[in-house]
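Why do we bother with holo predictions? Because pocket geometry can differ from the apo form. Keep that in mind while you read this record for calcium ion.
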Amino acid sequence: MTTRRWKGYGLTDVGRVRRSNQDAFLVANDLGLFIVADGMGGHAGGDVASRLAIETFQQVLASTDTAAPPLAPADRAESFLRSTITMANARILDEGQRTPELRNMGTTLVAVRIDESDAAGAHVAHVGDSRAYLYRERTLRQLTQDHSVVEDFVRQGLLTREEAAIHPRRNALTRAVGIDPAIEPDYTFAPLQPGDLLLLCTDGLTKMIDDQDLVRFLEQSFQSPDALCRLLVDECNRRGGADNITVVVCTQGPQS
Ligand code: CA
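The structure, written out:
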């Protein structure tokens, strides 16, 4: 097995207002798999849901010979992501139905599998408002479209981005993992080039730092993923840290 060149670094922080951290993330460099999840739902529910979603991925991977499918062929990445999210959905629903205090828990999820074969690229699947961005040559492109009420309003021309950012329903999601028996993740594929940077994050980051500011921080700390994660989390907290903050940054290391 060849050494993977793409490496991720992740950081999560409770923020300055919430008492618990209901976000979770996974950085599996050996598999090229990176996940961010943002749990929701009352007392203990949120952190259970995001953890169960990540655990489901870990269990699927552990039960699979990683040198073989489902991860090896690029064309299987989409079905791997979709089927694992569907499994996580069923598991969170099931757990919520068995345990009254976990009822109605759910989680967002954005999962990226980086393929390093000839057609190198990022397979991205998501549900909810956790995001994946591609930063290339000083330009930031959002790879995911939030499954949220305000995002729908923006697309229908009913709100501007600026109005959406302060709208009272800005936290309301239209899709989440673990809420409904039917789940439909969005999937996209983004070809990658040397020098690209992928950023995954929860809304605790994007609601504190807009895209314009994000570009500024990326320019500043592009060379050092761990310093960049630290910088972004610190900046969110400096601005009030209204929510849990989670960020995963993936870059291609030097070619050896
Ligand atoms: Ca959040």
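The first helix runs from residue 45 to 62.
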